[in-house]
Amino acid sequence: MAMRVKPETGEVGLKQRYRVTNWSEYDRALVNRGNLTIWFDEASIRDSWTPPRPIGRGKPGLYSETAIQTCLTIKTLFQLPYRATEGLIKSLMRLCHLDLPVPDHTHMSRRAGELSVKIPRRPRQGPTHVVVDSTGLKIFGEGEWKVRQHGVGKRRTWRKIHLAVDESTKDIIGIEVTTTAWGDSEILPGLLDQIEGEIAQVSADGAYDSHGCHAAIAERDARATIPPRDGAVTWGGDHARDVILQEIETKGLDGWKNDSGYHRRSIAENMMYRFKQLGDTLFSRRFERQVNEAHVRAAIINTFTYLGMPQSVRVGQVAPAA
Fold first, then answer.
1. Are 103 and 289 in contact (CB under 8 A)?
2. Are 161 and 275 in contact (CB under 8 A)?
3. Domains along the chain?
4. 154, 170, 202, 320: most buried, per Cβ within 10 A?
5. CA–CA dist 167, 262 (Å, integer)
């Protein structure tokens, strides 16, 4: 059946049909995601592979942060182990006729924890509508089969990835990596600190319904679009959250979501899906390397986004099945 029942009202709604209007451009962008010349740019690598000489005494390094991030990007993009990454980079150097040294797998692994990953971000055009969400990535422990058979073991461990996404441009503009001990609401202020420029609106789910989150959003003169928890009461003092409660009481939860633009938060959920397309596991053992591994994925996804994204328009409704 091509119908959905709204749990709040019991009303039956039809699914919407969409059409991509820029398919030819998006098709080329999907092809270019696997183009090695985008990830291994001969011209820029030739000039930035080796770091500048140190000021004063000291031995000059062989590999800049650009060199290490290039290696880790290719490793993550094609899901390679360190040794295979070393072999691939060496072959690319030969194919490009570049007489540059290649870090061995041990050096890559060591530098992975020290790297300051550069995540490409384009300047914002006007105030930003920020959508926020989090997800978990496995790091080590039992496999899925054993979990299904015997339950979760003590060694099954996760890292939480918290992302802030621009609702309009659909790129990552804030990222935090934490253990599972950190709640979503504790991380939101740090995510907002990473965002430059004016913020118009912040949309997040009920896990962010806290005094700290609302205060952090208010400090940026932004509008909070966060549904209050079940059984929520007013905070008093003409708080912005009380306005949300009043609007929900007047319009209903669905009406408030439609009028406030809360449904655009689904872009953050879609970003989590895109993030996990690069793997639902972090392969590094140490926490600082896990953080940089996640940051490298964010850099890759933003590059994907800037290559081209689909532009879709609503063209009608799907007729219900007979």
1. no
2. yes
3. 13-116+287-322 (no CATH), 128-282 (3.30.420)
4. 202
5. 11
Tens digit of each residue's pLDDT (9 = 90 or more) over 63-97: 999 999 999 999 999 999 999 999 999 999 999 89
**Cα 164 vs. chain centroid, distance in angstroms?**
7
**Consecutive H or E run containing 77:** helix 65-77
CB contact at 8 A, 132 and 203: yes
pLDDT at residue 1, rounded to an integer: 38
Structure tokens at 255: 């009406």
CA distance linking residue 218 with residue 199, whole number of Å: 10
The rounded distance, in Å, linking the Cα atoms of 21 and 312 is 6
Contact by Cβ (8 Å): 19, 312: yes
Beta strands in the chain (DSSP E): 3-5, 12-14, 16-20, 128-140, 157-166, 172-178, 199-203, 223-225, 312-317
Tracing tokens 């295979």 back to the chain, one arrives at 84
One-letter identity of residue 175: I
Decide: pTM greater than 0.85: yes
* CA 224 to centroid of chain Cα atoms: 20
Give 143's contacts (C-beta < 8 A, 6+ positions apart): none
